[in-house]
Amino acid sequence: MPVYSLHCPDCDHRFKGMVMAHTTPPREWACSHCGGRRAAPASGSQPEPHPWEHGSGGGCLCCGGDSRQTNERRAERV
């Protein structure tokens, strides 16, 4: 699941967007801040693999969370 670094030219917001494995990235990205439809991958950036996909355990690039904390929260709900 590639994670893209995105930039919105309307409000200058920078954020991350994930694309499901084996699918095509969207033609249009919506900004998570202003809702504008002109967001695009930041120039010069390359998609990064999602850390959970390869077991790095270094946290989530999308939400900024620590994978261990997220897994602990999931276990508490069960």
**Mean pLDDT reading:** 78
Structural shape = elongated
Query: What structural class should be given to the helix and strand makeup?
Result: alpha+beta
Largest sheet: 4 strands, antiparallel
How many DSSP H or I helices?
1
Number of E-state strands = 4
Helical content stands at 10-25%
In N-to-C order, the SSE pattern is EEEEH
Number of domains: 1
Could you tell me the strand content as a percent range?
Answer: 15-25%
Stretches where pLDDT is under 50 for at least 5 consecutive residues are 67-71
Beginning-to-end CA distance, first to last residue: 26 Å
Q: Nearest-angstrom radius of gyration?
A: 14 Å
Structural notes for this entry:
The chain is an alpha+beta fold and 78 residues long. The chain has one domain (2-77). 14% of the residues lie in helices and 19% in strands. It has one helix at residues 67-77; strands at 2-7, 14-18, 40-41, 48-49. Strands 1, 2, 3 and 4 form a four-stranded antiparallel sheet that branches. The two termini are 26 Å apart. The relative contact order is 0.22.
